[in-house]
Specification:
By secondary structure, the chain is of the alpha/beta class. 41% of the residues lie in helices and 20% in strands. Strand 5 (96-101), helix 3 and strand 6 (119-125) form a beta-alpha-beta unit.
């Protein structure tokens, strides 16, 4: 029986807000992990449970998620840069590795592009920020004025009922149906979605530039993609890794929603 791994709750004071992290493990590789939209930082605990001597893990609750308390009306890319720098400073480290699932993958890629000298390894699990498909891609590309108008029309307490009808008729895939059912349900959840809806452009990585800094800084990268992912196309991995010697793409039999569960079940063999 493996010994129980100690878990410490860390709260990083940031203006009137605070960012909650779980710290665990005693390994030499400092790993900062960012979860997906609507998830919690505890999803990353299996990494250290299975590999306690490899990683010292800081699993971050994103703003407006988990136990993080966010007072700001907006989220900016510089907020994530501050979080990473603060963790590195707390650990008296020179650099760290980053891991991200889905939306957290976008955060990890953005940080790699902006502050590559602080990044050692990048682990991306079904990452947003390279390519996406369907409704999610459309949301990212429309102008802010249209975003504001479309949000009021599309995101309200009645939309989930409409989404169910569209799903039953085969006009909406299961992921988008479940997303609307869960995240449109209450005023609190709609406010969180509104803030991220408007923030995506501010921490969108430029994948060509990201690939260049990965090559220049000799950062090692592993990308894990689902073979049945309806949100992140499989070609996303090829776009980011073409011509990069120290990058690897691993395909896992999974859709987007189940990807984190399948990945963490095999995390010790995959990493």
């Amino acid at each position: 029986m493996k010994p129980k791994i100690a878990i410490e709750h860390i709260n990083l004071a940031y203006g009137k807000s605070n960012i909650h992290c779980l710290k665990t493990g005693n390994g030499k590789e400092l790993l900062v992990a960012f979860h997906g939209y609507g998830e919690r930082c505890s999803m990353f605990l299996p990494v250290v449970r299975k590999m306690p001597e490899r990683f010292t893990l800081y699993a971050v609750d994103l703003p407006l998620h988990g136990e993080s308390h966010w007072k700001g009306k907006k989220i900016k890319g510089r907020d994530f840069i501050w979080i990473l720098r603060e963790i590195i400073k707390r650990e008296n480290a020179v650099y760290c590795s980053v891991m991200g699932f889905s939306l957290g993958g976008r955060v990890a890629l953005y940080l790699t592009e902006k502050i590559p000298h602080l990044i050692q390894n990048v682990y991306l699990i079904a990452p947003d920020g390279i390519l996406s498909s369907g409704l999610y891609r459309t949301i990212q590309k429309i102008p802010d004025l249209v975003k504001r108008t479309s949000f009021r029309v599309l995101v309200n307490k009645h939309t989930a009922k409409l989404a169910k009808r569209l799903f039953n008729r085969g006009w909406l895939n299961h992921h988008n149906y479940r997303f609307s059912e869960v995240h449109f349900a209450s005023a609190k959840k709609r406010r969180r979605l509104w803030i991220y809806w408007m923030a995506l452009d501010d921490f969108e990585p430029e994948w060509k530039k990201t690939r260049e800094v990965i090559i220049q800084n000799k950062i090692k990268m592993k990308i894990f993609l689902g073979t049945h992912d309806e949100v992140i196309p499989s070609k996303a991995g090829r776009i980011l890794t073409d011509g990069v010697d120290n990058a690897e793409v691993v395909f896992i039999s999974s859709n987007h929603r189940q990807m984190n569960r399948v990945f963490f079940k095999r995390v010790d063999e995959l990493l």
